[in-house]
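The methods section describes the discrete structure representation at length, but only in general terms. An entry of this sort, consisting of the sequence and the corresponding backbone structure tokens, reads as follows.
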Amino acid sequence: MRKNIIWAVVGALAVVAAVLCWAVGPVKTGLALGGVATATLAAANIRHARRRDAAEPDGEAAPPDRWSRLIPGLEDASTPAEITACMEQARFATVWDAARTWAGGLVLWHVTVYPSAWTARAHDAAAYGAWAGDLIAAAIVDTAREDGLDTGDSSALLGLGLDRLASRLTDLRTALAALTRSADTPVQYIETAQHLSALAAGDADQQAAALFTAGIARQVLAVHADEGAVLGDRLPALAQWEAMRTMWHHRPAHGPYRGARPLADQREHVDLLAAALLHHRQAGSTGPARQERAYRLHRAALDDRVELLWSDPAPGELAALADQSARRLLEWDRTQPDASQDDCQQARWYDHPREYVRRAYRQDMAVDAEV
């Protein structure tokens, strides 16, 4: 969404520039656009200042909204053990509340630790994640009702087998049937079923989108089933994810990245760099080399920092992604004209590419500090 807005603004500015150039000449046009750029940068600085000023005295920002707002006590829990205890003790008013909570956690964990599985729909991963979560929640409710576990406080849902849940999503038709089978199905699930049914009846691209949703929902459950037999076995993993997410938003940078920008800010910076490079490529150029290098550096540093948030070893493909991004930066630096005299040629970086990223990032921070 943010990238769409950026391109819309860029397009609008191009039209404005053409009109101004025709009406008042190139000099006044340059001054006008310079004023727009200054105002935009000022707004960005104001937003950054407000975010910084909203931080608490110890440097921690206000906690973000929790992914599972229906779990009591979660707002006061910080460690994985405390969060796990809250999840184990959670009681819900309806089976749908419980199913929505656990399905949301399973999906968000998967999006984080297996991002490559979502690459095909990365432009709208939030929507596909929500639809996949609805399919999983419906599978949970369907299975619970079949076993007579849909009464009481829904704590019995933690004993549901993950393989069995995945079997409910073997194909799109079966998955959609679970969404509308019950008379008390909440409206959001009925709307999801209607939307996915419409996609399934559409053109080839729409059908592919519907099939991807059902497939990724099944894959989420299958991956979790490889790590645990029943739903309750995955609570420690979900708790670790929640603790990591909290650190993402308000834990000061530490270790090799001490003094670096917050992770949420760095993610936004990487997205903006990627959007700028995409703009150049769509225009038929490669863009400035320094811009490509900045993207590779900040992408590698971001992946490295995310992997470091998890206990060793990090789950899924996070470590492999961090290594891959680091090697891409190292390979880029070695192909530059002045690379023969640069430190990047040292053999030690072949075996420790992430150490090279941390060193390069510290050098970049030092340059920024001087400027």
User: Anything to note?
Assistant: Residues 1-10, 15-21, 26-65 have pLDDT under 50 and may be disordered. The radius of gyration is 24 Å.
